[in-house]
Design goal:
- This protein has 93 residues and is mainly alpha-helical.
- Helix content is 52%, strand content 9%.
- Helix 2 runs antiparallel to helix 3.
- 3% of the residues are buried.
């Protein structure tokens, strides 16, 4: 696995951090803080994903491995076969 890709996966990193904090808080039975950690983590992920889609333009989807990216070649498999990706399905897939 490429370490560069794992460091750029912000939602996964937030969930890993929230899980570690949950285990720590669960040991001391601090249920209210445990719930607040997950609410904050999920809110951060939603805000991050929303702001990411508003700031990025011209996403492509790889036709070989279905990875969404902005590079000329797929960062996962290296293929140059791509199609324009749109969440609203007005064009592309």
């Amino acid at each position: 696995m490429n370490p560069k890709l794992s460091q750029n996966n912000v939602p996964r990193n937030v969930i890993i951090l929230a899980t570690m904090v949950t285990i720590l808080l669960g040991m001391f039975r601090l249920i209210l803080f445990l719930i607040l950690v997950w609410v904050a983590a999920l809110a951060f992920i939603v805000i991050y994903q929303y702001s990411l889609t508003r700031t990025t333009r011209g996403n492509f989807v790889c036709l070989d491995c279905a990875t969404i990216h902005q590079e000329s070649a797929c960062p996962k498999c290296g293929s140059k076969l791509k199609k324009i990706y749109s969440r609203s399905d007005k064009y592309g897939i």
